[in-house]
Amino acid sequence: MMASLCSMILVVTLLSNAKAHITQQLSTSGNNRSQTFVQIEALDYVLPKTSLPISYDLFLDLTDDQFRAYSGTVDVTFRQRVNSSVFAINSAGLSIDEGTLRLVRYDMSRVPIARMEIQPELQIVFIHLSEQLILDEVYIAHLEFEGDINIDFFKGLYRSSYQTENGEKYIATTFFAATYARTVFPCYDEPEYKASFLVKIRHGTKYTALSNMPESHRDEKAAFVETTFRPTPLMSTYLLAFVVSELKTMSSQDELFRVYAPEGREHQTTYAHSIAIRALRALENYFGRQNQMPKIDLAAIPDFAMGAMENWGLITFREDYLLYQPGETTAQAQQSIAAVITHELAHMWFGNEVTPEWWTYVWLNEGFARYFEYYITSQLEPSWSLWEQFIVTNVHSALGQDCHSNNRPMSYDATRPSLLNNLFDYVVYAKSASVIRMIQNVVGFDTFKPALNDYLRSRSYLTTNPRYLYESIEKFRTVDLPASVEKIFESWANAPGYPLVTVTIDWNQRTLKASQKRFWMPNDHDTPPKNELFYVPVNYGFNGMSIEERDKTTPSFWLTPDQPEVSVNIDADVDVIFLNKQQTGYYRVNYDKESWNQLIKTLNDDKFDEHIPVINRAQLVDDVANLARAGIVDYNIALSLMQYLERETEYIPWSTAYNALLHLDRLFSSNSEYKRFESFGRNLTTLVYRETQLQGKLDHLSQLHRDRSLYLACYFGVTACLADTDNILQMAIGNDSLYISKDLQPTVFCAFNKHKIFSGTQYEVELFSKFVQQTAEFRELVDRFILSLGCSRDAARIQFYLDMVHMDNPGLAIPNSLRNHILVSLIKGGPTSRRLALEYVTSNYRSLSDMLQEKQLLSLFEAIGANINSRAEYELLIRIMDANRGLMTGAVADAVQLAISNADETLDWLDKHSIVISKWLVSRNYGDATLPDDNGANIIVQSAILNGAPRSSIEIGPPWYDVNYNDPAYRLGDLSEPMSYNLELDVTNYDFYSYTGTVDILMRFNRPSDSFHLNSAGPVIDKDSISVTGLDGSNRMLLEIIEQYDVEKVLFVFAEGSFVPGTTYRVRMSFSNSIGTELKGLYRSSYKVGNITRYLATTHFEATYARTVFPCYDEPSFKATFAVQIRHRTEYNALSNMPIIEKTQVGDYTVTRFDTTPLMSSYLLAFVISDFETTAQETDRFRVFASAHKVAHTGYALEFLGKSMRTLENFFGRQYQLPKADLIAIPDFAMGAMENWGLITFREQYLIYEEG
């Protein structure tokens, strides 16, 4: 009786929670419609918790060749959780056939259906039954449905397209997060409902179907194909995906990773394939858990709403975040590709395997994925300084947005689908990752890593909420905290915004007082927010601190909700203090005036970079700029601090300064003292331009630097930058494609427009003429050029652009989107372009409103409101509103009112601050005298005279860079030397995208030491694998390994007195790396046999590329013997400098072991893994290898090899030293040939001879 009563209470409670208002709302039952309007409450949007899905059997018919509509069936197996006569399931926009609706018991007996009730607003279908569904019984619901495929809305099931030489191609693809699975098939479309999915897709014969799991069966009919996939693991609906397309891949079907791209672009997937392999391996190592899926497809989709989507086993990407073209893809784009791939792979654990129980906690997905996106990628590409970039792209970005009254917290309750689908913003990405990083620094890495692994293990294939995370961290933490992990973390997760920590230092009493208050950026739309209080971990740095103290980021003290103000003592020898070392805390810091002045004095000292670390210099710039903007700090302090940038050359502070300076420039550009501000900008950027340079080959970070600091240098008119820009334009106009490297385009185009650079002709006329004649080819270049139009200060040039907006010529097809693009860019520019554009809008609003879509008008007025900075511009906006109110839709009128409000706010800000800024610029003697005449045009004329006519050719150096051996930092020195290497490599990765290896080096020390260096530039060394032993077997204790990326070395540090002169030691370590395509180090080459691409792995080590393959003494003076062993796939053969002494085959793999070489330098080592053939015998002294279809043409080379060898032996009176000499023809080769001892590699054309 008691059990029955409890069951009844449970049923009533669940149904009342979920359906209290259902009968009062808009309902549709069959063809009878009744409407009663009442308030819909939050829980009404949530499925009643009366049943639980077990599996889906989903069939979709996508045989419509144009991908406009589809049909399908789904069989949902579910377990009943309570006795109920209603079955509820999500559905939105689908036409469900009520006549075919069935609900059966597990024994296939039917449950009678009374009626189907559709709730469109709730996106739920209620199936009312004539009998009750019984607690714990299993049932199957069968639904048949039809739906439309979206064309211009890239969510749910939608159509994408791309152009090929043969015309337009279509793709049917999906994007289900957060609530779009229900728009494609009826389902339990909430993250807590995990189930297995069996998917079958019927499609046209020319298409291939992909889904989360590998294909299990393909049934080919005359008119269509049915592709069936293996069942998925338990997962939420938003992770289901499928793609039906003609996308191509270079990968084989049995590879773990396959990367798909539109036809003709599949060669651009090799970098993504390589980085995916490396990222997955690093994630698996970190989590101590293997990838869960049998395959992982990455698909490049031309039209995509987000950067990517982590569908389990079929990750879809916007093309720009997957396809990499060497020489074309910018450094920033390459970095984004690597980071986004890593982000999506991290979701396999955070989100896919362990899934939040509701979207309230989506930050557990995205925050950790963003954190590992940076953490893991920074290890894969250490030279990118990505972990440092995290500060600018995440911490600073989040702080800049999280400062308003209407901000929401990380954990945010919402149920309405429209709200759920808008949760994916900075809060769940940048802010959450920043808070996670803060907690990691509080508890320490040694706690954080095992705690995360414990959390993942405990919730594997289950749902989660933050409490489980807190429990795991609490279990492993060893540090003292002012409260529980849960209480600390929840203070950040459950409250919007962040604190401003205000510091007052009494230098006489040697005390520091800190207090917290929520930071708010005042504006006319907001009232001050509630003063949320946080658990704030505070540490501080000071002048003269050691490296250990600089890197120690655990809290020195806490500010808490109970104790929001704290005083601490400071040491007597400290005279400058900065809070938040390495900016590990998610908060801003303000100082008393004297302390700010101390910081400014320190930053303007010649040794500023020794006193304040680079990340904290960036922090100070970001904090002071935003505190001044908020009216908390005087602009005299802000500008005085930013003045230190005159001596700054590091990328991270300049990336921050870029945002701060352009924000000030946008506000101040109409001021009468603006030229003084430009002079200030030129002074700041002159040194960094000289150190970085616009032209020439740069490393990755320098290319990013160029995008930021050098853009500013040209924007503000640095003479050398304008001269270089002119040279680039001259060369561009000299070729038909008007080519300018993508990473230079923003800088060059802005300089061209702002500083009246004409270079003998008008580049824009040439560009737009070609665009009109060949639209597709020049559209991307035109789009990038238009972004810079606002830089223009020349009225005639601006009028040329405005003429294009209203040009109506049948022979000149300018898309309306391009016209709007031009207007918005001019509005976002300087005062001249904005005034002329506003005058144009005032005079032509009627024709613009007919020409442009509503969303384009909204973007136009949004730009106007954000950029107006003078009373004259404001009056033009009022005139537009007053004259055209009757032509505006409600949404456009609202956008204009918001623009007026934003402009008011800017003008109020200028009234408060512009006089202070002007007086500061005058007081520091920034003035017109330093500005190039005519905005820099005279400099360009001088440059053209000095340089003469454009160069007709450019000398191109070798395809590598040489290490500067004159700089002793690059050299290994004579402390130790190698005697022998045992090198074991595993190159079994299909198509040669990555490899692993172990090297065993016998070395001798010439002087006593506790450390040694090896060259290494690229291999990821497994630190746990490193061992160093004496010949007596005694171990040496490794204390630290320091990777010195800038000089391509690794320093191994041991206990004092570890190494004795004249003694031999053995060092052994394992490593892994990707195999590139850059014709150096170990790289992947390929050749075609018909339509089939075949691959080989080969090497080119001269002069300094052995170190990119394995750690070694990579200098020519260090000679040693090499014993090489290579594990490879059996269909390939391995060659190296010496003959093979043993081959062992195990299954699909073969281990090939080579004889030991004589003493030789590392640059002479070589190996090739290929399917090449030779006409010679294995025991022959001389052999020539080539691909099977060219080996017949190696006879001349083989004959000449014998002749030349005999001649040389006679001439020198010495026999050739090795037992064999192999020559091999490589399809892709940087030089003519390379003299690797015993295995000479050639560019094909220098070895293959065909008669005639």
TrEMBL record:
Residues 53-239, 978-1164 form the Aminopeptidase N-like N-terminal domain. GO terms for cellular component: cytoplasm; extracellular space; plasma membrane; side of membrane. Residues 577-884 form the ERAP1-like C-terminal domain. Zn(2+) binds at H343, H347, E366. Its main location: membrane. GO terms for molecular function: metalloaminopeptidase activity; peptide binding; zinc ion binding. Residues 271-492, 1196-1250 form the Peptidase M1 membrane alanine aminopeptidase domain. InterPro entries: Aminopeptidase_N-like_N (IPR045357), Aminopeptidase_N-like_N_sf (IPR042097), ERAP1-like_C_dom (IPR024571), M1_APN-typ (IPR034016), Peptidase_M1 (IPR001930), Peptidase_M1_aminopeptidases (IPR050344), Peptidase_M1_dom (IPR014782), Peptidase_M4/M1_CTD_sf (IPR027268). Its cofactor is Zn(2+). The keyword Signal applies. It is found in: Cell membrane. The active site is at E344 (proton acceptor). GO terms for biological process: peptide catabolic process; proteolysis. It holds the Pfam family ERAP1_C. Keywords: Cell membrane, Glycoprotein, GPI-anchor, Hydrolase, Lipoprotein, Membrane, Metal-binding, Metalloprotease, Protease, Signal, Zinc. Binds 1 zinc ion per subunit. The record marks Y429 as: Transition state stabilizer. This is Aminopeptidase. It comes from Anopheles albimanus (New world malaria mosquito).
